[in-house]
Amino acid sequence: MSDHAESGSHAENTQSCHVHIVPVKVLIGVFLVLVALTVVTVEAAKYDTGELDVIVSMAIATVKASLVVFIFMHLWYDKPLNKIAFFISIIFAAFFLCMILLDSHAYDAYVKGFQQDKTPTVAPAATAPAPAAAPAPAEAVALPAKK
Amino acid sequence: MNTAATTTTDEHADSHDHEHHDPRLAHHFDSHQQQFDTGKLGIWLFLVTEVLFFSGLFGFYAVYRSLHPEVFLYASQFLDTVLGAANTVVLLFSSLTMAWGVRCAQLGQTRGLLVCLVTTLACAAIFLGVKSFEYTEKAHHGLLWAGMYQSPEHHEADAAAAPAAEHGETAEHAHTAAADHGDESLFEKTKHTLSYMTTVLWVVIVLAGIAFGVFIKKPGKMTLATVAGCVLISAFGMMLGTYASIGYHHFGHAEKPTDEEIQMAETVPAEYAKQKEKVPEPALAGTFFSVYFCMTGLHAIHIIGGMIAISWLIVRTVHGAFTTYYFGAVDFVGLYWHLVDLIWIYLFPLLYLIN
Q1: What is the arithmetic mean of pLDDT over B186-215?
Q2: N or C end of chain A: smaller count of CB under 10 Å?
Q3: Do A100 and B59 touch (CB under 8 A)?
Q4: CA distances (Å), origin A19, targets A24, A73, B76, B321, B331
């Protein structure tokens, strides 16, 4: 604080704030790209690509999100500290999602085994004693037959 | 204050007097640059907590979808992709105007800043209007969270009960008519509720105006007028969004399904067509709507918070608070607003575009 008194010429310097200013053309261009990508996701969702569906829509969403973060939120031109803070949060969110997904599927094999063990013991009690060979394939055959 | 400072013969206080006269610069900052950078780090840390906050809900979504994909496949057919996409574009546009507003603030263009902020506020209100139409429609169709969820099958069962007695060609004709009627009456109910809600909205506006008049001591005319203007813009935007989606529903309902239905009726027997187009309803369908209402509801709350913050900016802009070296508040609210937009960018494909 005390070093202020000696710097009279500094007074003007405090009245300035140097930041990156994004040109209007870039802003409008980014907006148009974002709208185009929205249309692309909606159109892409109409094609049945199975498992790939989520990946494609998430990839497009990530492209859109990074456009917003880097251009609209000026993160590209921002201080490294802000970049680090934001990306660490993204990394930890991703880590969190991966961990709970791993955890919720960690027991899939056990659950499957349990269900396979359970169903034959229930089935004979309810109906005629069916052969103990895997009831799951039997259902899979029965379902298309219904249609 | 001034006289007190000079009498306490302190070179520190003296420097205060001459250099830090600027009311826009807080005492504990050396320069505007430092003040701005500090604020910016603060808002980024806040956004970090927001990301982690929402990641809990995204985790809920991810686990549930990976365990029961069929529920999402079934339930997302009740979400209107066109309304969702329209809302996305509205929100993207509001993001553009917000970024433009920040640019105007940095260049000291007060008028441009005001126009941009008002547009952003109006877009946010339109978004909420469309959302309120979607929520109301779902409530009337019984598509609520688990526990409150009513299977949509029961509407169709009601509709199908009547024409089931007669057979032949007239049966399917009557059937579609009945189904239409059922849907139509639900739509009428939706519209009725929304017009009721509009009335409530106006009551709220009037009450808010009175409250502001009472609670603000010595209300500056300009502040009061600006606040009233912000509330009015929000209300009109919400009505615009709601009635636009009602109009879309009217239009879409008359045109699209009949074409498809006629083609269906001509090519395949009605029974078969019905069976084919319908995905069997999973037992846990209500849970999808729990996820839907949690995520979009929390997002809507963030939109409302953003609207309040933008209104505050508008009031300050009208008073000429922002200059080329003091625009931190605009930038920080803008960052928050972009984050809200960012979350919607992910929510839209996750909820509306499941195939």
Answers
A1: 75
A2: C
A3: yes
A4: 16, 12, 44, 19, 11
Mean of per-residue pLDDT scores for chain A: 76
A73 domain-assigned = no
pLDDT at A38 over 80: yes
Residue tagged 């509306």 (tokens): B352
Contact B355 A48 (CB under 8 A): yes
Q: List, in order of start, the domains of chain B with CATH numbers.
A: 42-352 (1.20.120.80)
Please give the tally of structural domains in chain A: 1
Residues B289-325: tens digit of each pLDDT = 888 999 999 999 999 999 999 999 999 999 888 988 8
Domain of A130? Answer: 108-146
Best mutation target, B21, B44, B80, B109, to test chain A (most A CBs within 10 A): B44
Q: Which residue of B has its CA nearest to A39?
A: B85
CA distance B139 to chain A (A): 25
